[in-house]
């Protein structure tokens, strides 16, 4: 199974939590029973799911200044979930290049959201990469 599919499953589960954030451990158990992730890739899935969920407020604070003409609470939940996942990878996963995190976010947006969202997500993440991460290097 490719990492991009495991990342997509992480996105799907995180979006599920946006809709219903109760009994998370039980939801995770049911989700993993439905979408069988190989044992050797389970850590990749869990790191993203647990990481994004635990620091989502911090991720939102980083995202907010880059949301041109939008506010976090007005973003479509699908787009917000994609942005959070990509930003998490950009901030916390050093083995994932930022351009890969951005490309994967655009791929998810293309599949699960609209054309405008895809362009918007690409622009937001590109600006974050240039203004926050390129300055630090």
- Shape assignment: globular
- Outline the biggest β-sheet: none
User: What is the CATH top level name?
Assistant: Mainly Alpha
Q: Looking at CATH, which topology would you report?
A: N-utilizing Substance Protein B Homolog, Chain A
The fraction of residues in strands falls at under 5%
CA(first)-CA(last) distance: 33 Å
- What series of H and E elements makes up the topology? HHHHHHH
Contiguous low-pLDDT stretches (5 residues minimum) are none
Helix content: over 70%
Mean pLDDT: 94
β-strand number: 0
Radius of gyration (CA) equals 14 Å
Number of domains: 1
In DSSP terms, counting alpha (H) and pi (I) runs of 4 or more, how many helices? 7
Q: Structural class, from helix and strand content?
A: mainly alpha
Q: CATH architecture, please?
A: Orthogonal Bundle
Instruction: Supply the CATH superfamily name.
Output: NusB-like
Quick gist of this model?
The chain is mainly α and 137 residues long. The protein has one domain: NusB-like (N-utilizing Substance Protein B Homolog, Chain A). The protein contains 7 helices and no strands.
Features:
137 residues; mainly alpha; N-utilizing Substance Protein B Homolog, Chain A
Walk me through what this model shows.
The chain is 77% helix and 0% strand. It contains seven helices and no strands. The termini are far apart. The longest helix has 22 residues. The chain has 137 residues and is an all-alpha fold.
Topology:
Layout: H1 3-19, H2 24-34, H3 39-54, H4 56-63, H5 77-92, H6 98-112, H7 115-136
Helix pairs in contact: 1-3, 1-5, 3-5, 4-5, 5-6, 5-7, 6-7
């Amino acid at each position: 199974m490719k990492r991009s599919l495991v990342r997509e499953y992480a996105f799907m589960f995180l979006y599920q939590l946006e809709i219903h954030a109760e009994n998370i451990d039980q939801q995770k158990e049911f989700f993993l029973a439905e979408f069988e992730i190989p044992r050797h890739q389970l850590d990749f899935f869990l790191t993203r799911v647990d990481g994004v969920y635990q620091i989502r407020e911090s991720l939102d604070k980083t995202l907010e200044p880059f949301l041109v003409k939008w506010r976090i609470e007005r973003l479509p939940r699908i787009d917000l979930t994609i942005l959070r996942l990509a930003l998490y990878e950009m901030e916390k996963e050093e083995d994932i290049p930022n351009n890969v995190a951005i490309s994967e976010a655009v791929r998810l947006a293309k599949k699960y959201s609209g054309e405008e969202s895809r362009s918007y997500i690409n622009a937001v993440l590109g600006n974050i990469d240039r203004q926050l991460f390129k300055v630090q290097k």
